[in-house]
Amino acid sequence: QMGQSGSLHWYIDAETGKIQFGTGNNGMEYDRLGTHEPITLAAQKQAAAIKTKEEAAALLTEEWGADLKGLPYSEREQEKREGEGKEKVFHWETKDEKRLEVVVDAETGRVVDVTIPRKDTNISVSEQAALKEAIRILEKYVDPGVTEVQVSQIIKPGEPSPVTSGDWQFEFIKSHDGVPVLQQ
Asked: Is 58 helix (H, G, I), strand (E, B) or coil?
């Protein structure tokens, strides 16, 4: 176990030293992925920050062409999933109960998560194209101190529902010289 938080641990095979997947692996499937190639991010002077409903709406409309006109809006603060601090959630919902959300660090405005529903049920984007787009957005909103990441989890598209967009989902972990870096 790696320190203070009970969720920051893996299971390691005592004979081979390889990380083994199990419940409590910090929500990552790092050990199940075929490659752990580091991804170098373009250097940023300052990450874009979202502090207001208007800025969150601009992100959704300008980056992805989302139409938010007339959609019910709500906003809330919640505890961060990984521990200390709060997140702010900007939430819009369509008539068919699909959500559009921008989740940010409540203190810094750093974008933590963006959820946008698919327009239809067809999966028309390849994993490589989706990953390329995820990296483009990550470079824009990641903390400037993060210059290298690795993919820690890939969730393949499924059926869209009120709680999931049904799109590709990628989770990244900070990396340094090809070694994953865990931080509180």
From this structure: helix
